[in-house]
Design brief:
Mean pLDDT: 85
Low-confidence stretches: none
Distance between the termini: 34 Å
Helix content: 10-25%
Oligomer: single chain
Largest sheet: 6 strands, mixed
Number of strands: 6
Shape: globular
Structural class: alpha+beta
Radius of gyration: 17 Å
Strand content: 35-45%
Length: 182
């Protein structure tokens, strides 16, 4: 019989320096995304970066995965994020991005950052909790809790994101849109 403690993943500890460096990386990344600073955020992504948001489902059996296998609300690459998502905020395009004007005020609260070594040397699997708050115009804030699982790679200049999977806790997403990196 599965108990809640059976489902808690066992982590191999990383040293305090790596843990602190990753925590700082996530704090900086959240600030860049909150400020719509895509020119400085995109270089944090590795060329093969993949960003996915799976479809969350509510299941009666707690032993089953809470996400529908192979179904994604968002499935993007580094290139599509750069050419389709980030370009909306460039001065030549913002006037035509009517869904973004005025900009949504977004804050990402990243907590419970836990890292463990990945399969390759210099790579780490990092799991974290995220609470995203979105305010558009004078509407009340929409709050969405989620969990993230990232693969990050150590670089000479810091860290690079290889992949990110963000799983919402709710099966009904109330965010105004999903064209934001959580």
């Amino acid at each position: 019989m599965n108990t809640p403690t059976d489902r808690v993943p066992r982590f191999r500890a990383v040293d305090a320096e790596t843990s602190g460096s990753l925590r700082h990386f996530y704090d900086v990344e959240a600030r860049l995304l909150d400020a719509y600073d895509y020119p400085n955020w995109l270089p944090l992504l590795e060329d093969e970066f993949v960003y996915r948001v799976p479809v969350t489902v509510t299941r009666d059996d707690p032993s089953l995965e809470p996400n529908f296998p192979g179904a994604y609300l968002v499935d993007e690459s580094r290139d599509s994020l750069a050419s389709l998502w980030a370009r909306r905020f460039e001065p030549d395009h913002i006037d035509f991005a009517w869904g973004e004007v005025p900009l949504h005020r977004i804050r990402r609260f990243v907590t419970n950052v836990v890292a463990q070594p990945g399969e390759r040397d210099g790579e780490y699997v990092v799991e974290s909790n995220v609470l995203i708050s979105v305010v558009h115009q004078s509407h009340p804030a929409v709050i969405a809790p989620a969990g993230r699982r990232d693969l990050v790679r150590r670089r000479p200049d810091g860290w690079g994101l290889v992949q990110r999977t963000t799983a919402f806790d709710e099966s009904t997403i109330r965010l105004p849109h999903l064209r934001m990196v959580i």
